[in-house]
Design a protein that fits this description.
Strand 2 and strand 3 form a beta hairpin. Strands 2-3-1-4 form a 4-stranded antiparallel beta sheet, covered by helices on one side. Among the domains are: about 35 residues; about 60 residues, Alpha-Beta Plaits (2-Layer Sandwich), CATH 3.30.70. The radius of gyration is 40 Å and the shape is flat. Helix content is about 40%, strand content about 15%. The chain is an alpha+beta fold. The longest helix is centred in the first third of the chain and has 28 residues. Keywords: Membrane, Transmembrane, Transmembrane helix. This is Periplasmic protein.
């Protein structure tokens, strides 16, 4: 570095330090005096603890009503199928499905409005597909088209 660069750099450092010191000094002067002073109280050593001999507060609790916790209301409705309208269904089990196939099958079944359930055990995932009688052949062809092995039940 040349001598002029060193001189210029030292001037810049001195100016920055001067601005920092000035801003800290002006900030200290703007603070109210009560913010700076700390008042430490001496702890009282001989404090008398008053313990009532009669447990009045406990006796008053007997007079009060029991507390009633707020209850949430829930409405459930179960729509049972009329036995005369029950359609025969057949189950198809798809065994050992990986996560990608599961996602694709779920989307496909939702799109075609097909009822299904899946069971996940330790190492494998099985899907049970409930086939309506009128669409059974079409769904089995769809599974065969996608190369998905299934087991009739």
């Amino acid at each position: 570095m040349t001598r002029s660069k060193k001189f210029f750099l030292s001037i810049v450092v001195i100016v920055v330090l001067g601005i920092a010191i000035y801003s800290l000094f002006s900030y200290k002067n703007t603070l109210p005096p009560e913010m700076i002073t700390l008042d430490y109280k001496n702890p009282q050593r001989d404090v008398e603890i008053k313990i009532p001999k009669e447990k009045v507060w406990f006796a008053d609790m007997k007079k009060e009503r029991d507390f009633a916790y707020p209850a949430s209301e829930a409405h459930f409705s179960l729509n049972f199928l009329d036995p005369s309208e029950v359609k025969k269904r057949r189950n198809v089990i798809i065994k050992s499905v990986d996560k990608e196939k599961l996602f694709c099958l779920k989307e496909l079944f939702k799109d075609k409005k097909i009822d299904f359930a899946y069971n996940k055990s330790e190492n494998n995932l099985d899907i049970v597909v409930y086939l309506p009688q009128e669409r059974e052949e079409k769904i089995l062809q769809m599974l065969h088209y996608y190369g998905i092995a299934y087991q009739n039940n």
